[in-house]
Amino acid sequence: MRFVILIRIFGLAAASFDYRGRPTIDDLKKFYGVEKKMYVLRRSWSLQDDESGTAPKCIWNEVESINNSQMMFKEAYSIGLTVTNYFVHAKLKEGDGRDIAPTMTARQGKSRSATTIKDKEEHVTEAPELPQTRRYTFQYHDQREQCAVVTFYDGATRCQLLFWKTQKHLTGSKKTRRTPLSLSGFHNCEREYNLLCPHAKAYEVYDDECEKWFEG
């Protein structure tokens, strides 16, 4: 009986520490696949547009190319009836050491275009200087739910939860027999997001209206 009890105890302990470790560059490449369309569901910070005073919504991106050292993707967001598009170039780096997540040092392209949905007019602008780089860490990836948690640090850890467009059916609140009610069906990514940014305010930047901006 004592032997059986010990087996059960150690079995429970092993299950509690079933940790797969941080993602690798290969995991990052699987998530950011070429032509994969994805959205940001939620993030822990908000930036307001200088002119409108409104925060961007419907943040979308699609990878153009990726290899072990760099990635190029299109990114877009909406403010009111205006959609802004630009390219982002990111240098990729495997984590330094065991269980260290890979990083993406990203820089926006110099030119960007803004299209107003109402009149379909496109305006192209060019920044006088290239923006500063920002280093993101690819902290977590759930291959089954096709979501990921990415962070950066600017004096505080900032989190964002991304998902493939094909998984949009998981964006609403979900509960299963084995999981508590969460803000979305991305249960594992939600858990990791909350561990990395436990006390940060959450800003929802995706809703059902977003897809009309980026069909195709």
Describe the protein's architecture and organization.
- The protein is mainly β.
- The chain is 15% helix and 39% strand.
- The protein is built from 3 helices and 10 strands, in the order H-H-E-E-E-E-E-E-E-E-E-H-E.
- An 8-stranded antiparallel barrel has the order 1-2-3-4-5-7-8-9.
- The N terminus is likely disordered.
- Keywords: Signal.
- This is Putative group i salivary lipocalin.
Topology, please?
Layout: H1 2-16, H2 25-31, E1 37-43, E2 57-66, E3 70-79, E4 82-93, E5 103-116, E6 121-126, E7 134-142, E8 147-153, E9 157-164, H3 187-196, E10 203-204
Antiparallel strand pairs: 1-2, 1-9, 1-10, 2-3, 3-4, 4-5, 5-6, 5-7, 7-8, 8-9
Signal peptide: 1-15
Protein name: Putative group i salivary lipocalin
Keywords: Signal
- What is the name of the CATH topology? Lipocalin
Structural domain count: 1
User: Are there runs of 5+ residues with pLDDT below 50, and where?
Assistant: 1-18
Main-sheet strand order equals 1-2-3-4-5-7-8-9
Number of strands: 10
Largest sheet: 8 strands, antiparallel, barrel
Q: Beta-strand level of the residues, as a percent range? A: 35-45%
* Helical fraction: 10-25%
Quick one: CATH class?
Answer: Mainly Beta
- From the alpha-carbon coordinates, what is the Rg to the nearest angstrom? 20 Å
End-to-end Cα distance, whole Å, is 63 Å
Overall pLDDT: 82
How many helices? The count is: 3
- Shape field: globular
Give the name of the CATH architecture.
Answer: Beta Barrel
Structural class, by secondary structure, is mainly beta
